[in-house]
Amino acid sequence: MAKKIVVLGAGTAGTIVSNNLRRHLSDDWEITVIDRDDRHIYQPGLLFVPFGIQKSKTLVKSRKKFILPGVKFVLDEITHVDPEKKVVKTRNNSFDYDFLVVSTGCKVVPEENDGLLDAWGKNAFTFYYLEAADVLHRKLREFDGGKLVMDIAELPFKCPVAPIEFVFLADWYFKKRGIRNKVEIELVTPLQAAFTKPKAAAVFSRSAKEKNIKITTGFELNRVDGKAGYIESVQGEKVNYDMLVVVPTTVGDKVITDSGMDDGIGYVPTHQNTLQALKHEGVYVIGDATNVPTSKAGSVAHYEADVVVFNIMAEIHGVKPEEIFDGHSTCFIVYSKGTASLIDFNYKIEPLPGQFPAPHLGPFSLLKETKANWWGKLAFEPLYWNVLLGGRHLGMPPTLVMAGKEVG
Ligand SMILES: Cc1cc2nc3c(=O)[nH]c(=O)nc-3n(C[C@H](O)[C@H](O)[C@H](O)COP(=O)(O)OP(=O)(O)OC[C@H]3O[C@@H](n4cnc5c(N)ncnc54)[C@H](O)[C@@H]3O)c2cc1C
């Protein structure tokens, strides 16, 4: 009888891992990937939509097109996981498995933030999902002066550099429109600095200062008062706004919580080096659904996929999974339309200056605003659709490489 691997969610992580597994395992292994819809969205492009740099419809493609023949794609809502009986239930079916890969991601839930829905679409917006990014695009065009606040409601959230990129792009956008002197820009974050890693945060803070962008730290959102135009923190601090752009509270998928597999806030407790679920045998977790202490980013999902495939193959081969994953994450940070920076780090090593991916050659520069980095950011999209989603290797290890980095 065929052995079975079931993958939950066909987003970035689930598509890469399913295809990567198919490339490595014999036909004795049946691979099934389940998702509720057939719309694969290139999420990094959502940042560009509000500023008219990219149109939202170009970011959406059919998931099916990117899943290899030989992987069974099921379009259905996953309703329950029983990791003891090794069964997944969907609205219309049920699937038993030998190995399970959880890649159900995470999503923003504005309804969790007091007062936010009253202001939603009036003077409070987000760019974290497609329809909302389009609304923000229209509203930004109408905005002709006042205070723009970019607020992160709480931790953890997806793509920790996106809010910084948003305020940098807002600076570029209002300059281009000739009204920068009429707009105040402020980034409000629950973090103690502009970013999770102190050295990179210092670099971003300097850039923000040069662009006349205020950063308010340690602000955990308690409520939004859209009528009076302010946000209030848990500690009672208030920040006024004319236009609020927010990363609402972010949670893992309900099915994880309903199946009793979560850590209390919707994420699966995951071994940070093997990527095995801590409480369940034969279960791996990948992408935004994990609780591992690194960025919730597509680059991380791609690196993790190599580790999950390695460890599933090791287990099939009768060998213990290895503690390979080091939290590796690589992110471009857009500074303006035409320039960007780049960071590459892991659980322990902070972003360092240097060249990437080839030592001394680059062509990308780490922790530095360059035009080449901008072109890298743009080139990443066709690479994503045509190479990475297919589960192909780029010849780079999934872990951080120190060659090309400058220490001290
Ligand atoms: C604005 C923005 C900018 C970003 N920029 C970058 C960037 O520059 N670089 C970068 O690396 N990353 C970036 N990211 C983050 C990146 O897109 C995500 O980290 C990545 O997509 C995570 O992949 P995932 O597979 O874990 O989750 P997803 O891609 O979200 O996929 C999860 C899938 O699971 C499915 N699913 C969940 N629950 C169920 C259920 N019950 N039944 C059926 N299906 C279900 C969903 O439909 C979805 O398709 C950005 C994200 C945003 C929002």
UniProtKB/TrEMBL annotation:
Pfam families per UniProt: Pyr_redox_2 (PF07992)
Gene3D superfamilies: FAD/NAD(P)-binding domain (3.50.50.60)
The protein's name in its UniProt record: Sulfide dehydrogenase, flavoprotein subunit, putative
One Gene Ontology MF term: oxidoreductase activity
PANTHER family: FAD-DEPENDENT PYRIDINE NUCLEOTIDE-DISULPHIDE OXIDOREDUCTASE, PTHR43755
Highest classification ranks of the organism: Bacteria, Pseudomonadati, Chlorobiota, Chlorobiia, Chlorobiales
Domain FAD/NAD(P)-binding: 4-142
UniProt cross-references to InterPro entries, sorted A to Z: FAD/NAD-bd_sf, FAD/NAD-binding_dom, SQRD
Taxonomic superkingdom: Bacteria
Organism annotation: Chlorobium luteolum (strain DSM 273 / BCRC 81028 / 2530)
